[in-house]
Amino acid sequence: MPLETPDTAPPTEGLNPAPASTSGLAPLSIPLFRDRWIASTISNLGTWMQDTAGTWLMTSLTASPLLIALMQTAASLPIFFLGLLAGATADIFDRRKLLIFWQTWMLVSVALLAVFTFLGHISPWALLAFTFLLNVGSAMNNPAWQAIVPELVPRALIPDTVTLNAASNNIARAVGPAIGGLMVAAFKSPHAGAGWVFFLNAASFAGVIWVLVNWKRMPLFKSALPSERIAGSIRSGLRYIRYSPPLQASLLRVFLFTFFVSAVWSLLALVAKRDLHQGALGYGILNGALGVGALIGASTLPRVRRKVPADTIITFATVAYVVTLLILAFVKSPPIVIGILVVAGYAWTSTMSTLNVSVQLSVPAWVQARALGAYLMTFQGGLALGSILWGFVAEHTSTPTALVASSIGLTLSLPIALRFHILRGAMPDLTPYQWKNPPPILAHFDGVPDEQPTAGPVRISVEYVIPIAHYAEFTRIIHQFRDVRLRDGAIRWGIFRDAQNPELLNETFVMESWLDYLRSRERLTTADMAIRDRLRAMHSLDQPPHITHQLYAREVPLDAPQTTH
């Protein structure tokens, strides 16, 4: 959800009203989202064609299992390193311009790869380098691409929108690998076939760029406060993750799942070539089987999600992949392998869509792109690190050994993962709180070197008078409010009681600057303020708790003017 201050309307008011039907296809009735979805599907088709052609080209350039597995690492590692940076830039800069730039970056990267492949000047390391460059663009593009969803559809349709986006990817995954494998197989030289696939993928980015260029973006909110700097924005995102248990649970679950399941993606080409004795087309069909299962999952998941808890969906997917890894290790029958890969594709989409929804619904507007960047970083980090490990194991032992080891690891991880729940209970109301009182005005001393709004640090003190009968309940709730203060920008927090009067309690928190304090007011949500209202309900005085704002007193020259204004 885009940025919004407490003084603006909720993001879905007056914009993109929810269709009467809330079926899984409802978001497609919104023209802007539909255009984006169609362009994205075409681009995804090119991406999956390239994935198959690139990996198969690598098998013709080298017999090293590690180098082949590193294709998955080259695709995943950029997001692992750049996820938070990408999220920070998407929360600071105009997302439309960012998307146009990074889509152009990917177009140029793939076009250059196509040229070098046609000319025959491609080596395993050059292929890895271009794959890495392509995915640098993907890493910087994806948080902004996902964060614009709430600008296109109402919040109530976000789960169905995420599922439709997964369907877009999986429609492409169902047919793209087979087309990519067929094109490689249609030429005598893998270089020629792969070159044409790379060229078509480069062209597929043009459709997305066209949609973005013609998008007349109307941001739902543009803060009146100065934008955060990139470093500060990254710190804010990390701080939010640290004090948000629901987001932490989603990130842990996605890492555990992708780390072990990455063995399927990184070693499938070796299974196809060495164990099943298939060519490029056969490998494309195996990849396509994953896509068919994923497409089935995307089409049925909206109904399943309304009946089955998220934890149960992910548990089913984990068990399905334990079985898949064992079958890939020991079964040499292509029909059986294709069948289990369809199930695996269903499980993959069910898990990834559920975890993506959990991230989008558990964070407020101001940090959404950073949270999605952290999610993508964790997701791709699991794939990248897992691919390195399973490729290394396969190279020094065998492919079946690597697959069995990943299956055992996935099984052992399940009891740990189940301790961290996903989408349990009602989702908090994350719409920005609409303040009725203006923020306090910072008095300025002539001659003081600090200038608004960067003066600081700032200490905010809130004094409560709490009857002894409510003391235990108050302290329990205010320690819940601690996480709200810290994830919204506080660098320190404490609650203290008066030594002589135990009914007098003082909440104190520190912000790095006055500007950070003003930002923290924008970041408070309706759910956060509901906690604050419960605290104030226990305050025994008729007037609200007394609040003071204190600025760090720096030393100034003795002859400095002593006036305020």
Biggest sheet, spatial arrangement of strands = 2-3-1-4
CATH architecture of the largest domain: Up-down Bundle
Number of domains: 2
- Looking at CATH, the homologous superfamily of the largest domain is MFS general substrate transporter like domains
CATH class of the largest domain: Mainly Alpha
Say how many strands there are. Answer: 4
Largest sheet: 4 strands, antiparallel
Q: What series of H and E elements makes up the topology?
A: HHHHHHHHHHHHHHEHEEHHE
Structural class: mainly alpha
On the 0 to 100 scale, the average pLDDT is 83
Molecular structure report:
With 565 residues, this protein is mainly alpha-helical. It has two domains: 31-216 and 227-417, MFS general substrate transporter like domains (Growth Hormone, Chain: A, Up-down Bundle), CATH 1.20.1250.20; 458-551, Alpha-Beta Plaits (2-Layer Sandwich). Helices cover 66% and strands 5% of the residues. It contains 17 helices and four strands. The protein has helices at residues 31-61, 65-92, 95-118, 124-147, 149-152, 158-185, 190-213, 230-242, 245-275, 280-307, 310-330, 334-362, 368-396, 399-417, 471-487, 514-523, 526-537, and strands at 458-465, 492-497, 504-511, 546-551. It has a four-stranded antiparallel β-sheet. Helix 1 (31-61) runs parallel beside helix 6 (158-185). The chain is elongated. The model is unreliable at 1-22 (pLDDT under 50).
